[in-house]
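Subject: mismatched residue count in predicted assembly?

I count 272 residues in my input, but I want to confirm that the predicted structure covers every chain. Input:
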Amino acid sequence: MITNNDFLGALENELLGLNKSIRWVGITNEDGIQISEKYREGLKPFLTKEENEDYASHTMDRHKKRLKFEPKLGELEYALVKYESVNRAIIPINRKYYLLVAIDIEENEVDKIIMEKVIPTTRKRQMEEGSD
Amino acid sequence: MGWRKIIVEYDFLYSFTKDILNLDDSIIHVGIMNKFGVLLNVEHKDHVTPLLTDEENEEYASQSITRHKKRIEFEPKIGKVIYAFGRYKNVDRATVPINNDYYMLLMIQREQNSTNRSHQIIVEKILPLVEVERKKFVIE
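Triage response: the counts match. Full output below for your records.
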């Protein structure tokens, strides 16, 4: 089960360790309820825990509007918003759970980090765990 | 305060959309919409069969504005939205705010073996042109 706390904690730690520019990792369910989150050590966050929960809820609302177009555009691999201070991304884990990631704005290889590190690592962990 | 009048010359809108489309071979579709999600002009590469119908593009535009309004709630804490991006299996899509009243919708062809290409196109080619032409999207 993906809601296993040990699994979530291990996944978040592993993702935070993939690249020093990853600031924050959260996991939300399809209803936009944030079930877990972890900050990079020593980070001064932009958003409070409550604001992150609010952001997760908004992100899922936005994501549901995209789903209608997937038959033509293909499945969403990730969506990202570049703000002036930070990059924030949503990455589907499966149809029920989603990964939220905040990455430093100075990072120029955001796509590479997500496509070549975050997604493969999440898939690998998921397969090892046998979660769906 | 009276009504704000929003004026954009159609000739400019047409040439601006074309200019954006011609910035890179990978840019296959460009739409300019207003803050109500109404598409004002759409251009796409002649050799590309559009993935979405006109009606679907209009619906996508309208939903993009709805999504954008949710994003900007967090701007006081994390700064303005520079652009929003979606990587789908078949195509990359982006929404670029021009100012508070106008937005650009982009569809960029995916290059399977190249990471970061679409982001580079947005940052290095599209945003600089938007910056130059922003003042022509007049609000009176």
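Chain A has a mean pLDDT of 88. Marking this ticket as 'not a bug'.
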